[in-house]
Design a protein that fits this description.
The complex is a heterodimer of chains A (about 120) and B (about 325). Chain A has seven helices and no strands. Chain A has about 120 residues and is mostly helical. Chain A folds into two domains: about 50 residues, no CATH class; about 60 residues, no CATH class. In chain B, helix 12 packs antiparallel against helix 13. The chains are: A mainly alpha (about 120), B alpha+beta (about 325).
């Protein structure tokens, strides 16, 4: 174990953002592995995590982006709180991997021409 | 006048584009050059020819690439069309990284996000693990994001081999590949068979990849992963805590107790272990030992909002039980 652990902040996270649908009742007692790992990664953006995560809002956002409502819930439930927050904050800027053959071809031609 | 413009225009275009490219190319140095010198363990070529291939439809490189690595990890029914429903975001005409991670979990596999460097990629390839990478095929300012699966490298020919888009065996020069990957911050994931750990894995990164599976109650996958981690990193307490937490959630409190004890031997000053141990003991009606464990947790972290109250918490719970 790393000795340089910082107590005191990480353990609040769990209570803020848990999704009741996927957390068993008994788990509220103990410190979750997720919290332990989050705490060990000191680089976590704490300010961001103090924001209350509203999974319903996230669902609405995904629906606006063309996902059907039930599927949106499944997607959100398969992500961590941090991932969900990043997604909602930057949904327009995040890299969306796709296949844009035309653009690639064009860029490639330009690249060949000028190199 | 018009003639003059005609002559000049292409030059201006080229000059502008050139400037853009130059700023792009003047960025960080490439890593691969230093990795193939004469003592390098990665000198010989490798190509994972057995890796499946799914020619993608429009905008579906995410589902196709994900199906490729999922099948390699033993998810034999992984299908790009089904995965498209799970990760394709219509309004963005593509798939986001976190959705790929989520869909991997939904297939009960651990999505391990590699350390962002070229050597990790080589380590994985030489351990027979194809790597799903994000690339920017455009420019930093005008990105064209794309997912592909790296299946091989040939240092002698200066080549990287990928399953990419509609191309079953795409060959890029190392330089071109690394530039496209570098512009995506060297983002790549490895998905192994259950109970196997990626060759380049670092303990904390790996635990970060596994803990969400446990949180989502995908206990079988998570416990195989923790189990493997105890063998790979026998000095790490975290996977034992993870196994204990799974046992606890499945109400196997005696097993949980045992795992927490083992963890406490590796991390004798780590309060969460004793705190969870106290709960596992309490749930078995061992009130006396639960109290001792709680006291120990409290002594280790007296000012902590949760562990600092451990004795009271456990006593209250014991009274409720009685």
């Amino acid at each position: 174990m790393k000795k340089s652990l910082v107590y005191g902040t990480a353990f609040m996270f769990g209570s803020l953002v848990m999704n009741p649908a996927v957390i068993s009742p008994a788990y509220a007692d103990i410190v979750s592995t997720q919290d332990i790992v989050t705490e060990q990664r000191a680089g976590v953006n704490k300010a961001q995590l103090t924001e209350q995560l509203q999974r319903a809002d996230v669902q609405e956002q995904l629906v606006r982006y063309g996902v059907n409502p039930d599927e949106a819930i499944e997607r959100i439930n398969a992500m961590t709180d941090e991932e969900v927050m990043e997604l909602t904050a930057n949904i327009d800027e995040l890299p969306a991997g796709a296949n844009a053959v035309v653009v690639i071809l064009l860029l490639f031609i330009i690249w060949i021409l000028i190199r | 006048m018009i003639d003059w413009l005609h002559k000049l225009a292409p030059r201006v275009v080229i000059a502008v584009l050139g400037a853009v490219f130059l700023t792009a190319c003047a960025s960080a140095p490439l890593q691969h050059e230093a990795l193939f010198d004469s003592n390098s363990p990665y000198q010989h070529q490798i190509e994972l020819e057995q890796t499946p291939f799914f020619p993608q439809e429009d905008f579906q490189c995410g589902p196709a690439a994900l199906a490729t690595v999922l099948q390699t990890s033993g998810v034999s029914d992984a299908d790009p069309d089904v995965l498209a429903g799970q990760i394709y975001l219509p309004e963005r005409r593509g798939s986001l990284q976190m959705e790929l991670l989520g869909a991997t979990r939904r297939a009960d596999r651990v999505p391990y996000v590699m350390a962002p460097n070229f050597e990790a990629l080589l380590q994985e390839l030489h351990a027979d693990n194809p790597v799903l990478v994000l690339q920017n095929l455009g420019l930093p300012r005008w990105p064209v994001w794309h997912y592909a699966v790296v299946i091989g490298v040939n240092p002698e020919q200066d080549e990287v081999i990928l399953r990419s888009g509609t191309t079953e065996r795409e060959v890029m020069t190392m330089r071109r590949f690394e530039r496209t990957w570098q512009m995506a911050n060297y983002w790549g994931i490895v998905v192994t068979q259950l109970g196997e750990i990626p060759a380049s894995a670092d303990p904390l990164r790996y635990f970060e990849a596994v803990a969400p599976l446990e949180q989502q109650q995908r206990f079988e996958a998570a416990s195989l992963a923790y189990q493997a981690a105890t063998e790979r990193w026998p000095d790490e307490a975290t996977p034992l805590i993870g196994l204990g937490n799974i046992a606890y959630q499945q109400q196997r409190f005696a097993d949980a107790e045992l795992y927490y004890y083992q963890a406490s031997e590796l991390a004798p000053t780590y309060a969460p272990v004793f705190y969870n141990l106290a709960w596992a003991l309490l749930r078995q009606g061992k009130h006396e030992s639960a109290h001792q464990a709680a006291q120990h947790a409290q002594e280790l972290a007296p000012d902590h909002p949760r562990f600092g109250q451990a004795v009271t918490t456990i006593e209250n719970a014991a009274n409720e039980q009685a």
